[in-house]
Amino acid sequence: MALNLFGVTVNDAHSTRPDVSGVQLVAVRELAAICAEVEYRPIPADDGSLARYADVLAGYALTNPVLPAPVGVVFRSADSVTRWLELHYGALSEAMTFVENRVAARVHVWRPGKTEEREVGADLAAAAAESLRVLRRTATASLPLRVEKLTGIVLSAAFLVDSERWKDFAAEVHAQQRLTPSVRFELTGPFPPYDFVQMQLGA
What we know:
- This protein is of the alpha+beta class.
- It has 2 domains: 2-100, no CATH class; 102-194, 2-Layer Sandwich (Alpha-Beta Plaits), CATH 3.30.70.
- It is 32% helix and 32% strand.
- The protein contains 5 helices and 8 strands; from the N terminus they run βββαβααβαββαβ.
- The protein has helices at 47-61, 78-87, 89-99, 122-136, 166-179; strands at 2-10, 24-28, 31-38, 66-75, 102-110, 141-147, 154-162, 184-191.
- The strands form 2 sheets. It has a 4-stranded antiparallel sheet, with helices on both faces.
- β2 (24-28) and β3 form a beta hairpin.
- The chain is elongated, with a radius of gyration of 19 Å.
- The relative contact order is 0.17.
């Protein structure tokens, strides 16, 4: 039977297994691939698949760090997953260390009003640039997600935040909202580090 790869976590015999049905772990030393049996064919990225993917990773992220795989990755067999883990063991271990005890946030800056006006304007871009710069100081890493159409200045960004500093980060987002009441700050998370993991999937 083929296996759908959701992500990679640590192989910790003392950790409490999350209550996620239909999932199995394929372990190689200190790492384990989070998988589910599927037919060997492409998995459509529909609402059901995306919801299942998010639920599985969120369940495992409650107790251990996870490295999310791209949605819909399918291996031909458990042996294929094992070979992949062995081949990329070093890089995956380093990535696991990087995300351990950290969560992801996404912050989007926009202006209330008509839909076509929500993400344009030099004033909006200036406010976003300053506020996101301040937020970057409270995070371990950040990545741009969306830019203002005319200036190219970032309006949405992902942030990797130490778990113990999540409340501080959220408080800083609210502080930026108070400083710039003409725009809105939308904070979502905490999430597994979707935006900060890039997997090499060659076997």
